[in-house]
Structures are given as structure tokens and as C-alpha cells.
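Thread: phosphoenolpyruvate complex, take 2
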Amino acid sequence: MSAVISERQAMAKWVYSFGGGTSDGGAEMRNLLGGKGANLAEMASIGLPVPPGFTITTEVCTEVTQKGGHPGDLAGQVKAALAQVEQALGMSFGDTANPLLVSVRSGARVSMPGMMDTVLNLGLNDETVEGLARRSGDPRFAYDSYRRFIQMFGDVVLGVEHHHFEEILELAKEDLDKSLDTELTAEEWRQVIGQYKAKVEEETGAPFPQDPEAQLWAAIDAVFKSWTNQRAVSYRRLYNIPEEWGTAVNVQAMVFGNMGDDCATGVAFTRDPSTGENQFYGEYLVNAQGEDVVAGIRTPQNITIAGKQKNQSDLPAMEETMPEIFRQLVEVRETLEQHYRDMQDIEFTVQSGTLYMLQTRNGKRTAKAALKIACDMVEEGLIDEAEAVSRVEPGSLDQLLHPTLDPKAQRKVIARGLPASPGAASGMVVFDADEAERQRDAGNKVLLCRVETSPEDIHGMHAAQGILTTRGGMTSHAAVVARGMGRPCVSGAGELRIDYKSGVMRVRDVEVRAGDLLTIDGGTGEIMLGEVPTIQPELSGDFAKLMGWADKHRRLKVRTNAETPADCRTAVKFGCEGIGLCRTEHMFFDAGRIVAVREMILAEDEAGRRKALDKILPMQRDDFVEIFQIMRGLPVTIRLLDPPLHEFLPHGEEEMAEVAEAAGASVDKLRARLLRLSETNPMLGHRGCRLGITYPEIYEMQARAIFEAACKVQKETGETVEPEVMIPLVAMPRELEILKELVDRTAKEAMAAAGVEVAYLVGTMIELPRAALLAGKIAEAAEFFSFGTNDLTQTTYGLSRDDAGNFLPAYEARGIVKQDPFISLDQEGVGELVGIAAERGRKTRPGLKLGICGEHGGDPASIRFCESVGLDYVSCSPFRVPIARLAAAQAALAERLRDV
Ligand code: PEP
Ligand code: MG
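Output below.
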């Protein structure tokens, strides 16, 4: 066995080279080479200027992190790939005259910005640094590079914390009376390097490693291991990235953007990632190394003159300072967009007047930009409508469905920053990520305000309504992460000064303290005192266009779960095609009728109940009239009463007295009845159709209200009304038979009285495992099924809907469940029951209408599942209707692809 494994290992290819116009890999190899590695290979093969290098595959990550060693022949393959780089550049790794330096970077299948480690300038030591000084003719640059290397390698590989180096540098600058790093001379950097090395030896007990090969292997291993660091683990948990994917490691020849004024480094998006406009959008810094742009230490300059004007910057654009490089970059932009047919996020470096591409990937974008880019690209002929539909992440539409600032509202703008991620957000000011989480848990809306953010702040950004930073550009950590999360963000508001110690933020004579209310507008960059009113979003333009395309491609219908007129109207505006679940018990809670409802429940006998029900009937009828009118001919599924009875019971003496008076009974009698009704396990108790069986007069009243309302609306409007009466919590076929007979009888009476024929259906929820298993029998009476996956999940797992939150997070943390099954359908278990019920139900009654109305009806992954088992519709809360429409279209497209 082990001989077989080692043979496979010996033959396997662990290392893929790229550069010099060719490559072993390509964009389609993302799983093996990671996103960065696959795209470097792709760029090299389409002739873009990529410094040569190689990628060590994600498979090696698994070997290193799980088995602690390298697979057979990795060393040989790395050596050969390195030799190829040396040959392409005419330089040698470790050579004292003309040393090749490399970067060692992580690169997972999906981008995880800032979560894993990177080492730059690797290959420098006390001797090669002299060679670099001579070759570049710039000793200051060479020593600066060496000290950056010691700092990064020390931190990432040797575990010497960053602050040790920062302290040494700060003290040195103080002694030399210099405030900027760029003011230090070569000799001064040499002295800092001496102190850095001494610190490393003091902390690790060994001198700083001088052998470039040993440096390389230590860095490769450290980058692989950073896959399992705390930051990366939390990030993966947040974004559901499987641990087994692993990261690749990219080793690439260094190019320097910090060798003088004909050097630069920058990042750009081929289109505006905030608005989606077809404009080149990017930032650069002259004489700087890559990380300087993202770190937000120096204020970056715009690439284009248009960008400079838009951001009201006085700093010259690259279009002005380096016109030839700019021209080349514009060409690269064109090539990349034509090749990838999507907006790209690129990194580049200019070394001594030569442009190098260091990265490309599909750019993160706001939902607004995603829509615009998808629609524009269809118009430009780059993609077709179906592709456009699959380009927009359904969940991201949420960003567009939420309010923006009311333009008429009074606002006191105190400062302005960059419009880094759109949407308006108000909240109390907090300066710390942990505090943001605490305040959110205490039920407060918070605005996280930081000088800048780093990956350690992710949880606080997630907890906040919006994010404000005083430093950093449109590509800073705060901006990129906020856009990805869909949080409004204003970045780089330099006029504001934050004093963390005293918990105050100042701008001119205005002071904002922790706890004060503040509003930001991520679309304009404005920062305002207090809470500013908002307005509902406009759902026309690109949104309507994309939704139209989605509707063309989807098979699943989308309905809504709604019972109030306001919710019904919202859902209709969002394009719902009917009501999939109208929970009538929610109507019973209305302040004007709860006393009558309690009187009905506490009545001693049928006569008492009927007396109370007579009071409720006209109110229920009016509810249904209004709903039928709003839904204008669309199907409306009304579920008969389902709550555990105790939810309606009076609490406290005052409520008891009120009910006693209405019922004409004594408080003592009521109390005794109350005691009899109380249940040990109400979720599994006297609820759903069990109520209808024991107190048929309740369901009879509801059915009467439905049909009287339907007849009235149909008569008055001339439009057909399509009621679907739904019986909840059925476990036994007989339950449904009895209740269907009751509904049919009542319908007949109501229609005869009104002289109107209404076409209606009677069906059931499938929300208990027994119902799913007996679906074939149940379908003899049921004219439709609606999967109540909330209860079906609860009863399949034997997991209380109300209490699971107490311990499920521990299960998620340990990977026992990947996701809360109440949020995303457990396709393996609960899903199998849905599949069985669908199949058995349709066997009895071909064409049986099937839907889902549990919370899962609005979850894109669950919708994909519903498509695969052939349901007819999903039903979800009104605000999720557009998300479901898009997810349903993507599901249909994916299903079609699968069938090809
Ligand atoms: C369900 O159980 O999935 C359902 C929709 O009903 P409720 O949530 O009202 O129990
Ligand atoms: Mg239910």
C-alpha cells in the first residue's frame, strides 16, 4: 500500500511554472493552483508581462498541514522550477553578484484578502544585499529591502512579533531626528538591520538565517501553515470555505516598484467596483512597494485624470506622470476584459520604466456595480443574458433593496471621505471591533469607526451597520471587505482624527464621542451627525432588466409568506407570483381581536366557542378581502390556524379579568381551564390540524371567512380569486380527509349563499416525517403539498426550533454541522424526505402542485435543491422575493447545464 502511495507521489506534479510567455497551468486549474497561481499562469500564456515564477499546488498544503511533511520529489521539482526562473532572467538565487530575489505568497481557490501570509525580497542576506546594492546602484534601496525582508520573514516565519521591529525603527528615527522611513540613508538602514538581526537572535535563540535555500523552504512551509492560522480559520467559517481546499504557494521573481522615480506600484479595477461604470479605476504610488498602496500609509494617486477629478485630488494621475506606462496598462485592461469577459482586479508594478503584472482576478464589486457590469457586458456583446444572470450573487441584492438617505432630510455633514461601499447606515459610534460585537449583541445598531481596519477587525465589521475609516483609499482593507460584506463604508476621511484612548473623534470644533449617533452615506462619502431618515430603493433600470432576464430563465415560481396588507404590497412590488403562506394565527394576535380569540380558546364548550368565533368571523373575512384585492388574481395559500394554543392565553390578572368579562365567566373558572390547556411540549402538542380535529368550529369559521371573502371579491372585481386552503401539521391521512371534507362543505355553503363559483384547492403542509413517508396516501385527498421545512427540520433532527440556537454554534464551530439547518436546508436528511414526499405524492396524483414555505424558500442553496427535486414554487418573506427570483433562475441554468 505505502509503496503504491509513494510511487503515486513520486510521479505527481506538485509544481507548475509560469512566465516568459508560457505556463504549465491556466485559469481552469484554480482548484489545484489557487486563484492567484491559476491567473498568473493564464496571464503569462496570453502574453502579458508576468515576472517568472512557479506555483506549488494546494495538494501540498494538505500534506504539510495534515501530515507535517513534503510529498516525494517536491524538492526536486522546486529546484527545477527555480532554475527555469534563473534562466529566464539571467540571475541566480543566492548569487552575490546578481542575486535573484523572490516573493512567496499564499493563494487559495477563492480570495481571502489579508488572511494568510506573504514574504517578499526573499534571498537577501549579508552578502547578496551587497550584490543588490551594486546592481541597482542604489545601496539605500538594497538595505531598505533587506530590512523589510528581515521584518516580514521574522514575523511570518520565525514568529518574532511585528512590534519589536516597529519599536527599533521608531527609536532609530527618533535618535536620527527623522520622521519618514524614506529619509533614512543606506548606512542608517544598515544599523537598523544590525539591531533587527540581534532582536531575532534574542527572540529565537538562533541567528537570522543566511542560506537562501533554507529561507525559501522555511517561507514555503510558513505560508502553507498560515492556512490554519486563527484569522484564516475565522474567515473560512464566516464565508463557508472548506478547510480541505488548502492554499497554494506562489514563488515569483521580485520586481521592485521602489527603486526610484521611474518605479511605481498600484492596484486597479478594469471598471468602477462601486458604481460599475465602464471606467478604468485605480490607484498607484511612485517609488513604493506593493503593500504600501493597500496599507493606506501614503495617500495613493489616481491612475486616470477622470478619477483624479472625481475624487477631487490634487496629486497628479499616472496618465500625466507616466503616459507610456499608462497606455500599456490601458491595453492590458482591454486584453484582460476581452479574455476573462469580466471585471478584473489587478496589481501591477513598474520597475525602471517597465510594466509587470502581478495579479488579476475577478474583482469584488457592490451589488449595484454587479448589476451594471452584467447589463453593460451583455450590451457590449461580451456575455449573453443567461451569463449575466449567473454573474450576480442573489444574496447581494439585499444591498439594493435597502433604504438610502432621504434627499429631503436635514443633514449636518461634518466631514467627507471616500464613497467606498454604498448604502446609508446610522448607528452609535464604537471605536473597537470587540465593542461593536458587544453592543450589537446588546441590541444596538453600531457604526464601527477606525483609523484603518485590519483582518483582526472582521467580526466587528460584520457586527456593524456601517464602517468609517480615517485612513486608506478605495482599495484599502476596510473598503474591500465592506463591499464584499455589503456594509456601507466611508474610507479615508482624513479630516477626522480619532483618539482611541479617550474615545473621541474630532473634526474642527466638532467632537463625536463613543456612543453618539452618526450616519454615513457610503454612496457619497458624507459623514453626518445624528440619525438621518432614509427612503426606499428604486427598483428600475439595471435591476429591472436583470430581473426580467432572470424571469425568462427560471422555472420555479416565487411566492411570498405574508399576511399583512403592507407585506403583501411589498411582495407584489418585488414581483411575487402569489402567496405561499398566509399564517392566519398572526391575524389573531391583532389588538382588536385578541380578547375574542382568548374567549374562544377558554370557552368550556362548543356553544361558547361558537359565540366567540362569531365575533372573529367578520374580522377574518375583511382580512381576506383585502389580501385578495391586493393579490389580484394570483393564488393565495391560506393556512388554517396553527399555533400552540398557549401562545394566545392571557397573562396576568388584568388580561384574565378582561377575558372573563367578555365571556361572562368567572376568573376562577378560567384559571382552571388555563391549567388544563397548558402543555409540557407545546411544539409537539395541541397545534395544527389537531386543533381542527378537536375544535372543528374554528376551522369552519376560517373556511367560511375565506370563501365569503373570495366570493365577494370575485363578484365585485370580476377577477378570479384563487384560494388554496392549507391544513397544517398533518401526520395521518385521515386527518386531512376529515378536514378537507369540512372545508369543501363550508365552501359549497358559502358559494351557494353568494351565488358565485370560486375555483379553489385544498392541500396540506408536509412538515412531519410521517407525512413525508405517507405522502402517497395523503395525496389522495391533498390537491397540493407545501413543504414546511421549519417544522420538518425540527422533527427530522428532533431539534427544537426555539432552543437549538443555544448549542448549534458549538456544533458549527466543531464542523459537526456545516451550516445551521434552519437557515440552509439539510439536503442530505430533510432533503431526502422532501424528495420522497414529492415522488410519492406525484405518483398518486400526477401534476400535484408542490411548494416550499419554510424559511429555506428564500435561501439560494436551498432554492437550488428545490429546483433539482422539481418543486413548482418557493415562498419566502417579501424582501427576499427578488433574491429568490434570481436564485431560481441560476438554479434552472445550473440544472440545464447538468443535463447537457
Ligand atoms: C414550517 O414549519 O416550515 C412553516 C412554514 O410553518 P411555521 O413556521 O409557521 O411552523
Ligand atoms: Mg410549521
